[in-house]
Design a protein that fits this description.
Layout lengths: L9 H10 L6 H8 L7 E4 L6 H6 L4 E6 L2 H10 L4 E4 L11 E7 L7 H14 E10 L6 E4 L2 E4 L3 H8 L11
Parallel strand pairs: 1-2, 1-4, 2-3, 4-5
Antiparallel strand pairs: 6-7
Amino acid sequence: MMNEKYYHTKESVQEYIRLAQGVNGEGLIKRLNEFLPSQSVMLELGSGPGTDWNILNKRYQVVGSDNSKQFLEHLASTLPHGTFLELDAVTLQTEKHFDGIYSNKVLHHLTTDELNLSIKRQASILNDGGLVCHSFWKGEGSEDFKGMFVQYHSEESLKDLFQGHFKIIVLEE
């Protein structure tokens, strides 16, 4: 359940921020912009250092989230004008509803069962006509990477997981 220890120490968060410098989901967000109207209310799962949050926030009303108190502290200090929730990507314990839900290489830290629960919960907090946009690591199997669980996915496995809850508009590599 996304309780990866790597993201919960000040040192590992600082290391991640350094490693992820210059990396963002700009291409994914441009694709999202084709389908989700400007000013839509967006939930970003796993805001991390806030890089994608900044890009999303230029077009949408973004509520960021993370389950790492260390990342939330970083976000509060670097983006004081932002709204951020402490959320677990599986349970998504919030009463808020959104027009869109976005994550960039976050949900691959969930087991298949946890991802299934997350998808069901996402469907329940999404407004009518809303959409989800997520990226995953492609492949098969799983591994432990620096103390983080990573579940790889194929196009077929993602179709199987999402199509029961969402109409798939685009699924691409």
